[in-house]
TrEMBL record:
This is Kinesin motor domain-containing protein. Residues 5-84 form the Kinesin motor domain. It comes from Piliocolobus tephrosceles (Ugandan red Colobus). Belongs to the TRAFAC class myosin-kinesin ATPase superfamily. Kinesin family. The lineage of its organism: Eukaryota, Metazoa, Chordata, Craniata, Vertebrata. The keyword Nucleotide-binding applies.
Amino acid sequence: MVKQTIQIFARVKPPVRKHQQGIYSIDEDEKLIPSLEIILPRDLADGFVNNKRESYKFKFQRIFDQDANQETIFENIAKPVAGR
């Protein structure tokens, strides 16, 4: 029987396209669960009211930014699970 709960991780990758679609920020306050906020600015050039949401916030056990390499990801996520 597994005694550990499901853990959710996020890895932010660099955008494939040169034109950035959204902006993100990572909040890793030690007292709280790390959160990732993605901001998708409304397109005001269309000339009509756009009531779409601009900000989306998600919580994870850990968030890896764009500078995290594959070895870091493995050491922190896969190795503890595979080593059981």
